[in-house]
Amino acid sequence: MITEDVLVVRDVSYKENDKILHVISRTRGKIQLMSKGSKKPNSHLVNVSQIFAYSKCSLTFSRDMYIITSAELIDNFYGLKNNIDSYYRGSYILELISYVAQENEYDYRIFDMTVAVLGYLANSVENLDKLVAAYELKLASMLGYKPDFVHCISCGKEIKEDARFSISEGGLFCSDCVKYGNGINVTYGEILTLDKILKTKFENLSSIEVNIKSMNIIRKFLFYYIGRDNFTTLKLI
Ligand SMILES: [Zn+2]
């Protein structure tokens, strides 16, 4: 018997009464679970077999398939269903994580951060885009693409002024080194903001002012490193 925390990113109808759940698991990466009988309204697996369900599952492994024997719902992020703006952003988070997650490869920090941001999206009516931007930047960083917003990547000097941010180089060029790199001109204020977003927890984001330009830089940065930018749910945001 295996116990695993999972987040359902997709539920697919299977045979008359069953579902196959595509989930992100905390310690096994992206896996599929057979949820037997979960289409029956009185099934004890109804709640844990829906998209956005975050639960603790007991599993057996049989014939190349994980089968749920019992499960306890931790959260279904119900608030997402009451606010279409939160719902679309939550759907984008699921599409993103389901793209970057791999089978049998995991990073529990990414799993924990994903359920955390869904909780904030479900319970907030403002700061939604800021939450998504912070998730995108932290995700890039956890995937191994952590930008340096403090030093010039060419001469190493600490940046204290307007500079140029290069997505492909993953950092800033100071005014002396700007001739060596292509990128986007950013003000010192924007640089401080980007660095704060990277280092601040979701619950403390509300005090940080983030402009659209900075959010666009973050998204371009993430998409450049994960190699994809055509997420379906992004069109809804
Ligand atoms: Zn420099």
TrEMBL record:
Keywords: DNA damage, DNA recombination, DNA repair. GO terms for biological process: DNA recombination; double-strand break repair. Residues 2-77 form the DNA replication/recombination mediator RecO N-terminal domain. It comes from the Bacteria. Pfam families: RecO_C, RecO_N. Transmembrane segments: none annotated. GO terms for cellular component: bacterial nucleoid. Involved in DNA repair and RecF pathway recombination. Belongs to the RecO family. This is DNA repair protein RecO. It comes from Sedimentibacter saalensis.
